[in-house]
Amino acid sequence: MSKFFLSVAALLLSCVIASAQTPPAPSRWVNQRGSELLVLTADGQGGFSGYFTNRAAGFGCQNQPYAATGKPVQNKFYFVVTFPECNTVTVWRSIIVGNTIRSYWDLSYVDSAGTLRRANGTDVFTRAP
Ligand code: BTN
């Protein structure tokens, strides 16, 4: 096989193996609901931690920073926030596109009958100065 084809094969393989782009530390991101993700530390392998402040209308636990941790999985990254006072946990499955983070989120809670329920939606975060 020629050097050219070996190089192309290596490039394709590295694209398949490469994990997702994750937000740099430090960086600040605000979504369309006014909520903020503040990334403060990165572990050098795509993992990161910081704080999420919820400002979305119709949700509880507002205007208080909660610990957020994230990590890459294949071509996406996930970040997770527990809201202890609201007894809920939200996971965002995300990709970075330019100056935005596009996310699907999944919020888990227990209803009044004791059944585990989930709510979901989308968030788009834009990088803030
Ligand atoms: C709660 O009400 O259970 C805690 C706050 C949840 C806020 C959710 S998380 C997904 C969505 N995006 C936001 O910016 N806020 C809501």
How does this model look, in words?
The protein contains one helix and eight strands, in the order αββββββββ. It is about 10% helix and about 55% strand. It starts with a helix and ends with a strand. The model has no long low-confidence stretch (mean pLDDT about 90). It has one domain (about 20-129): Avidin-like (Lipocalin, Beta Barrel), CATH 2.40.128. The chain has an eight-stranded antiparallel β-barrel with strand order 1-2-3-4-5-6-7-8. The protein has one helix at about 5-15; strands at about 25-30, 35-40, 50-55, 65-75, 75-85, 90-95, 100-110, 115-129. A hairpin with a 5-residue loop joins strand 2 (about 35-40) and strand 3 (about 50-55). The chain has about 130 residues and is mainly β. The site of biotin has 15 residues, from strand 6 and strand 7.
In total, the number of strands is: 8
- Please name the CATH topology: Lipocalin
Q: Please work out how many helical segments DSSP would assign.
A: 1
Low-confidence runs: none
Report the span from N to C terminus: 49 Å
Quaternary arrangement of the chains shown? Answer: single chain
CATH architecture field: Beta Barrel
CATH superfamily: Avidin-like
Helix/strand order: HEEEEEEEE
Content of β-strand? over 45%
In terms of structural class, how would the helical and strand content be classed?
Answer: mainly beta
Bound molecules: biotin
Biggest pleated sheet = 8 strands, antiparallel, barrel
How many domains? 1
Mean pLDDT: 91
The top level CATH class name: Mainly Beta
* Helicity, as a percent range: 10-25%
Estimated radius of gyration: 18 Å
Going across the major beta sheet, what is the strand order? 1-2-3-4-5-6-7-8
What is the approximate shape?
A: globular
